[in-house]
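ok so for the tutorial part 2 we go from a plain amino acid sequence to predicted structure tokens. step 1 is just haveing the sequence, like this:
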Amino acid sequence: MRTIFHPADERGHANHGWLDSWHSFSFAQYYNPNKMHFGALRVLNDDSVAGGTGFGTHPHDNMEIVSIPLYGDLEHKDSTGRRAIIKEGDVQIMSAGSGITHSEVNSNRDKDVRFLQIWIFPKERDIAPRYDQMSFPPEDRLNTLATVVDPEGKDGIQINQDAWLKLGYFDRKEMIDYQMYKDGNGIYLFVMEGEVKVGEQTLSRRDALGIFDTDQVAIEANEGSQFLVIEVPMEL
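step 2 — the prediction. this is what the tokens look like for a chain of 236 residues:
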């Protein structure tokens, strides 16, 4: 098993006033040649958007874009005519495919919205753009890792990649034996809150650990921990 540790305080950071963004990988003005991507995972941004502001209409193509609100509400509009509010507990995916434009705006003026923005390289290029979202109540992922995104859309939202995203909240100490779904995949474990251990490596709030060249991972979730597991192909 091989690992790469990404401490929270070594992430890229940009504060634009209306947007406070932390980058796990090179993004916009932040460039680190050692942090371009983790396999098919290209972007993991930890964003806070001030009330009544947001990202204006802009284009994407050939990227799987996942949004996970951690606090507050995010309003989405896109060129397919879709308009939706994404709330805490929801997960949204947009397959940009052959091309799409969209906007994301904090739908409240009196509080910030905090969300994770995740980009994953697609398995097939130039597909028809697609949008979906689902709600995953916190009680359904208590003391377990609940699948929120998968390739077939059986347990979560469908993604155009051999990728799986799982969310968990633990109010007690728990040992998890994570089995890779596909040979050659790796996982990127991102801690939202609390503390998690993998082997001798302890991860605290906003720390991350990339794990690959293995088919299983023992994860020790401590009381009060919340984290995201992103399994992706390591070869592009």
